[in-house]
Design a protein that fits this description.
single chain, 277 residues, alpha+beta, 8-stranded mixed sheet, 3-stranded antiparallel sheet, 7 helices, binds N-oxalylglycine, binds manganese (II) ion
């Protein structure tokens, strides 16, 4: 049975018509994977998966990747709970970082996750929508002259740059170890498929070959370009919604929400199988 969906916008997004049973059908999962290449973001409105079902679907997409490695004792714990509730979340700086455009896992030595998956357990009353930007479209729609200017440029991506917007001034690279992580990546990622995408985001700190100000101006301009309405989709969450995105080809961020809103999302990830190059 072919997958049934409708495109949300011409360049991004698919609303998929599926039942919870379909999610464990290997043929259906294969079709989801190919749709992810094309539409970047798959929305399963109010499908209401529980953690077990979300993990089972994650495992069918690829190899489950656990961001919070210290919590590996049981199945449930491969599900990361995204909340700003101060009772539950003792390290809000990581979740506050999600307010800014990013790709998951860019500063790791392993390839960035292939797909990220979010289930909405409780939506915020105001704010809390998640936005996605198609980085293939962002590259492909650049004028040819500009594509040529980007050839050979590499970018230093750093945790410091990613968390700078949410840091208190007394947190410096000297007293927060994880902040030192950085990776150099090409500004244009040529994927195994042959397609190219831009790689920008708040973690993109500087262009190695350019003076600091020129490089940052370029990175900010390319980020603004990538986030233009034609290339982006904003998801308004309802409880039970499930969204899967192609993490290597898209940026995402959440519209700010109140830490007392109760907004809670359950996140799983599929390990990447392609280094950025
Ligand atoms: C994530 C993320 C945004 C959100 O799960 O990686 O950035 O909407 N989440 O909570
Ligand atoms: Mn994220």
């Amino acid at each position: 049975m072919p997958i049934e969906y409708e495109s949300v916008k011409p360049l991004i997004g698919a609303r998929v018509h599926a039942s919870r049973n379909d999610m464990s059908d290997p043929d259906f999962v294969r079709e989801c994977l190919s749709l992810l290449d094309d539409r970047l973001v798959l929305v399963f409105p109010q499908i209401g998966l529980d953690d077990k079902e979300q993990l089972a679907f994650t495992d069918l997409l690829g190899e489950r990747y656990n961001f919070v490695k210290q919590l590996t004792s049981g199945d449930e714990e491969d599900v990361y709970k995204i909340t700003l509730d101060p009772e539950i979340n003792k390290t809000p700086e990581y979740v506050l970082g999600t307010f800014f455009w990013h790709m998951d896992g860019v500063m790791e030595e392993t390839p960035p996750s292939k797909a990220s998956l979010l289930s909405c357990r409780k939506a915020a009353e105001t704010g809390g929508q998640t936005e996605f930007a198609n980085l293939f479209a962002a590259y492909e729609h650049l004028p040819e002259e500009e594509k040529r200017q980007l050839e050979g440029l590499t970018v230093l991506h750093s945790v410091y740059s990613a968390v700078r917007p949410v840091l208190e001034l007394d947190v410096t690279p000297d007293n927060f170890d994880g902040i030192k992580k950085q990776q150099e990546h090409p500004l244009v990622w040529q994927h195994d498929s042959g397609r190219k995408s831009l790689l920008v985001g708040t973690h993109a700190d500087r262009v190695v070959q350019l003076p600091l100000a020129e490089g940052r101006a370029l990175l900010i301009r390319l980020l603004e370009w990538s986030a233009q309405p034609d290339f982006t989709y904003r998801h308004q969450w309802q409880e039970g919604d499930f969204v899967v995105w192609n993490n290597c080809g898209a940026l995402h961020r959440v519209i700010p929400y109140d830490k007392h809103s109760g907004r809670t999302m359950h996140r799983t990830s599929v390990a990447g199988n392609e280094h950025i190059k």
